[in-house]
Amino acid sequence: MLNSNQRWTVGLIGVGHVGAITRDALSFRSHVVTYDIARDLEYPDADFAACDFLVVCVNTPPSPDGDGAADLSQVHAAFDRMPPGIPAVLRSTVPPGTTDMLAERYQREVIFWPEYVGETRFVVQTMDQLNKAPFVIFGATASPALSSWVDLVAECFGPLVKIYQVPSLEAEIVKYMENSFFAVKTTFVNEFRSLCDSLGADWQSVREGWLLDPRVERDHSDAFRTAPGFGGRCLPKDVAAILVRAAESGASMPLLNAVKEINGGRVRPAQPVVEIMPTAAQQS
Ligand SMILES: NC(=O)c1ccc[n+]([C@@H]2O[C@H](COP(=O)([O-])OP(=O)(O)OC[C@H]3O[C@@H](n4cnc5c(N)ncnc54)[C@H](O)[C@@H]3O)[C@@H](O)[C@H]2O)c1
């Protein structure tokens, strides 16, 4: 229910990279109460019971089995402790079908809201990414809770941001398709860089010529000598996870399988990640 300041109250579970971004965005127009298992000794039962929404931002790392599947144990742990009846909003990247499974298993409405502001190694992209994310996607079916949630997010992000709403299955696939595409593109440019190096051609001249065509986007267009292939905390795990889900469903993805294999063979030292600049809300 809107409080006396016309604000919703939101409980946020998991204050890591995505949780911090989400907290700051929602704080513009709602009162946000946070809980992180690594930081807070007590679960805020009473505060969460008074929330209008509970937003889950926990991680979905590769399964310890080593098969590449997404490990949903943090998501289940978050849902296990939630007070009943309050709609949940899921920000974690989860395999297709997970949102519906959670709604059924925990008997609560679940809105899937994938995150697109990733981590970056490039200083210039950091604030730009935050300021210019031109869309949000909601995977959900129509309901009063969804309408309220769309209102809240629309008020936080403003009218320039397109709100795209589809069933959760489609939204889950969209998120994996995005990261898989960047993995494919990165593998592709690395192959051409290697061709350039073999032929004695200057890679940056070739790349800039390629980018003259406005149909080719600049994002993920470079291949770095010190960091070949794709890395980071999302692309490798998400490519592996969607391949597992595809195999379970009987779908064949030979291109993505090859990309995973090619990338798996690369030696890629860990790269420092640029911290997203703290907002005034975070600093206080
Ligand atoms: N990092 C990115 O750039 C990025 C971008 C888009 C999507 N995602 C997705 O968002 C999700 C979160 O990623 P992240 O990078 O923020 O992870 P993270 O590891 O930085 O943060 C997760 C946080 O959740 C906390 N946590 C774990 N279990 C908990 C529980 N039961 N209760 C409360 N807190 C708990 C952890 O202590 C941690 O602080 C993942 O599914 C990831 O794939 C990440």
Polypeptide structure, described:
The protein has 284 residues and is of the alpha/beta class. It folds into two domains: 8-166 and 275-283, Rossmann fold (3-Layer(aba) Sandwich); 175-264, N-(1-d-carboxylethyl)-l-norvaline Dehydrogenase, domain 2. The protein has helices at residues 17-27, 45-49, 73-81, 98-106, 123-132, 144-157, 168-199, 203-211, 235-249, 254-264, 280-283, and strands at residues 8-13, 30-35, 53-56, 88-90, 110-112, 135-139, 162-166. The strands form two sheets. It has a five-stranded parallel β-sheet, sandwiched between helices. A two-stranded parallel ribbon has the order 6-7. The chain is globular and about 65 Å long.
List the helices and strands and how they pair.
Blueprint (H helix, E strand, L loop, with lengths): L7 E6 L3 H11 L2 E6 L9 H5 L3 E4 L16 H9 L6 E3 L7 H9 L3 E3 L10 H10 L2 E5 L4 H14 L4 E5 L1 H32 L3 H9 L23 H15 L4 H11 L15 H4 L1
Parallel strand pairs: 1-2, 1-3, 3-4, 4-5, 6-7
Structural class by secondary-structure content: alpha/beta
The unique ligands bound to this protein are: nicotinamide-adenine-dinucleotide
Task: Indicate the CATH class of the largest domain.
Answer: Alpha Beta
SSE string: EHEHEHEHEHEHEHHHHH
Strand order of the largest sheet: 2-1-3-4-5
The description of the largest β-sheet is: 5 strands, parallel
Runs in which pLDDT lies below 50 for 5 or more consecutive residues are 278-284
Distance between the first and last residues' Cα: 26 Å
CATH homology superfamily of the largest domain: NAD(P)-binding Rossmann-like Domain
How many extended strands?
7
- Provide the CATH topology of the largest domain: Rossmann fold
Work out the radius of gyration: 20 Å
